[in-house]
Design a protein that fits this description.
5-stranded mixed beta sheet; nucleic acid binding; Homeodomain-like_sf
Length: 365
């Protein structure tokens, strides 16, 4: 059988050669990169068999690329991908599937189970004739493309406070416009601080998570942290006590009062009964301390809650302290580290929908 004649790319100009070199250095598409290398090697005088050996492609592929470049130039380097097989399930049916997936089986008279799995949803779609045939993988992809995902059910506790909006605006105004005659301080209790192994996250070799004991005893009881966040400096001040009665809360207020003498304190607190104790109210009235109470079920308006979340994540999660002294030392070390890097607290929930509320929403998604 006679040998096929060699095929070479047409003569390349200097500018075309430079452009081919740029493509081979910068192309991210592997098809375009491979075609550019074929053309460049052919332009350097290398035969088809040499290009085939280097790139591990067929001789016909090399010849087709060279012929295409000779006919269409650099446009032949760009892959012309097709859209693939047309969809067998139309857009209207896909929307219908996503709608059904967001319903409950009870809505269709199914009492045997309370939630859909992919297999049960597929069976339901086939029984109703919504689709003729569909695999679980196709169903999963349709739901994902339609923005329907498998999520844990959450709860929302609606506030019953008739003055919710008034109280919320009062707190937001203190956050946005700190009073010139004093400072705003957010207070709350954190705990209970019990001794137990706590789950957490850590960088570990794949498949080898850090393990902790599963059984433990609570012989040493619990403790409580009473803390205050000064918005002017961003620093946290705290006390750890055995209990969290009005005596302990009043003790924290006295410490804050002594720290900033001569300034009025605007103390934001929730409706925990020790905060409203008559002795606490009487002392505050006599010592330039104004208690600003959060609306009922509105603890998320207390700026210190975010600090508690960080404290739990960085100081407690993933630990297994065997004594309160050891655990309290870990908390102290974190607070000391955090206060050294504290900045004034500004810009509370600036983009949140609560800024536009004129009445309490009946439902919050």
């Amino acid at each position: 059988m006679a040998r096929r004649p060699e095929v070479f790319v047409r003569a390349l100009s200097m500018e075309e050669g430079r452009k081919l070199q740029r493509v081979t250095r910068t192309a991210k598409d592997p098809v375009k990169l491979r075609r550019a290398i074929v053309v460049l090697m052919s332009g350097q005088g290398q035969a088809v068999r040499d290009i085939t050996s280097l790139l591990q492609v067929s001789p016909d592929y090399v010849r087709d690329v060279i012929h295409a470049f000779n006919e269409r130039g650099f446009a032949a380097l760009d892959p012309k991908r097709k859209g693939g097989r047309p969809r067998t399930i139309g857009e209207q049916i896909r929307q219908r599937i996503c709608l059904i997936a967001r319903t409950s089986p009870a809505d269709w008279g199914i009492t045997a189970y309370a939630t859909w799995s992919l297999a049960k949803l597929r069976e339901h779609l086939l029984d109703r004739g919504t689709v003729v045939a569909i695999s679980r993988e196709t169903l999963r992809r349709i739901l994902r493309a339609g923005g329907v995902s498998w999520q844990t059910t959450t709860t929302w506790k609606a506030s019953t406070d008739p003055d919710f909006i008034t109280k919320m605006h009062r707190i937001l105004d203190l956050y946005d416009h700190p009073p010139t005659d004093g400072r705003v301080v957010c207070v709350d209790e954190f705990g209970p601080l019990n001794l137990q192994p706590r789950k957490g996250k850590a960088w570990r070799p794949v498949g080898r998570p850090l393990r902790q004991r599963a059984t433990y005893n609570r012989y040493d009881g619990v403790m409580h942290m009473l803390a205050a966040l000064d918005l002017a400096t961003g620093k946290i001040f705290y006390r750890i006590r055995d209990r969290k009665r009005h005596r302990e809360f009043l003790g924290l207020l006295k410490v804050l009062r002594a720290r900033w003498p001569g300034e009025k304190l605007y103390v934001i607190a929730d409706n925990f009964s020790p905060h409203r104790h008559p002795r606490v109210r009487a002392w505050c009235a006599d010592n330039q301390v104004e208690l600003v109470f959060l609306p009922t079920y509105g603890s998320w308006l207390n700026w210190i809650e975010a600090e508690f979340a960080a404290l739990r994540y960085f100081a407690l999660n993933g630990t297994d302290h065997r004594s309160h002294a050891e655990q309290n030392a870990a908390i102290e070390a974190y607070i000391r580290w955090r206060n050294a890097r504290a900045r004034p607290k500004t810009g509370f929930a600036t983009d949140s929908p609560i800024r536009t509320w004129t009445h309490y929403p009946p439902k919050v998604a």
